[in-house]
Design goal:
The chain is an all-alpha fold. The chain has helices spanning 15-79, 84-111, 117-131, 140-151, 153-161, 164-175.
């Protein structure tokens, strides 16, 4: 550990000053941690946006390629000797069949979706624990002081009318 005598004025600092200093340093540390987290999140968001834009452009290019490839497939079938209308019907039917297969695959995946059972059980367990928690009982002396302070409105007015020095002393006495 470090020697407290190494710091300038360390012997002159009171406990309150040390506590205030520690609190200020802890606050600065928390602010620095928050700033670091914000910087990391900004960087991740920027990467995510760039990745999303790349996927969107890819999707648009593929969407534009589908009609071109469809026409190429239909004309390729036509070159095999089948009529042009039949070639386009075959390509269209293939797309419909592919769409039906993908819909069935998606439906099967949706049927496997279940509620988050572990999270629900954990939340119920936490709620049960919190319902059983009771506040700490206050000592009998604190209740007596509260009752004495709450029932003497005339005493409070009398304190307000006293000189400033007496009011400070009476506030100090009533708060102990």
């Amino acid at each position: 550990m470090s020697d407290p005598g190494n710091y300038a004025g360390s012997t002159d600092r009171s406990l309150g000053q040390l506590f205030a200093s520690a609190t200020a340093e802890m606050s600065a540390l928390v602010h620095d941690e928050i700033a670091l987290a914000k910087a990391e999140v900004r960087q991740d968001v920027k990467r995510g946006v760039i990745g999303s834009v790349a996927f969107i452009v890819t999707g648009v290019l593929i969407l534009f390629a589908i009609p071109v490839l469809s026409f190429a497939a239909a004309y390729g079938i036509h070159n095999l000797g089948l009529g042009l209308a039949w070639s386009f019907l075959i390509v269209g039917g293939a797309f419909i069949l592919l769409g039906i297969l993908l819909a069935l695959f998606g439906l099967a995946k949706f049927k496997k979706v279940k509620p988050p059972e572990k999270s629900i059980a954990s939340a119920k367990q936490t709620a049960a624990v919190l319902q059983g928690v009771k506040p700490h009982p206050r000592p009998a002396g604190a209740r007596a002081i509260e009752q004495a302070q709450g029932s003497t409105l005339a005493d409070d007015r009398a304190i307000e009318n006293r000189p400033v020095q007496d009011r400070a002393v009476s506030v100090t006495r009533s708060s102990t």
